[in-house]
Model the fold of this input.
Amino acid sequence: MPASYAYLGPEGTFTEVALRTLPEAATRELVPMVSVPAALDAVRSGEAEAAFVPIENSVEGGITTTLDELVAGEPLMIYREVLLSITFALLVRPGTKLSEIKTVTAHPAAQPQVRNWLKANLPDAVWESAASNADGARLVQEGRYDAAFAGEFAAARYGLQALETGIHDAENAQTRFVLVGRPARPAAPTGADKTSVVLWQRDDHPGGLRDLLGEFAVRGINLMLLQSRPTGAGIGNYCFCIDAEGHISDRRVAEALMGLKRICLQVRFLGSYPRADIKPEAVRPPLPGTSDDEFVSASDWVARCQDGRF
Done:
């Protein structure tokens, strides 16, 4: 039997479409799961080799369900990412008119991306969340709701009609998906990489977040995502999910992680992996003093000073 990849199902989700852009997906059994936690738990239990789930969209930022699952529980690692442009269709049972739609459904992350369209075209419709956009289409097929926001490609799968297409409040909206597996050695750096971590402060104090961010700033590392998530230990207790440019094998990134390990209560490494939005030749050069050669040179200089050879 081929190795399997679990993904947020059912069939016909944007997640499935994005997953099928990975070359290795053609050699894996693709298993739809009812939720992001179920997909990630399949990896933790060994039922699946990896899970493919949404983690961020360009309208609302991080997908909190995915972030929270990566923050808590048995550690997992990100190995790949995929960016997918998102536009929605309004799927209905054949023959349904716009004026007849009283209830609509989709994944919670879809609502901010169609909110203005919904207000302008279906101001009185009641919104109910679904486990995924494709699951919303399934519920429309079963008669539970009048319409669902989903990919136009899901219409045929669920015997529905695309009443409206090209729906989006923000031009060029994208969702980022990640391939998550059990911890292992990160892939070799490509020159256009991203490193993801979760940070917990030792205590809440003035300038605490500045101290964390300073470990990146003084080494010229750009941050691509910074999102706080509650720890569950009470109001005001947060951890921080961070995506930073670079790979853990880069000296500046490795030193930043060492600095964070010293000052944080806990650091969870979520992986270093190729960026989906840029090619290596398009990466801007490091700031002066932050290249690997300059870190090596500075380290050698300190060693010479310690030996009295300066």
In short: The radius of gyration is 22 Å.
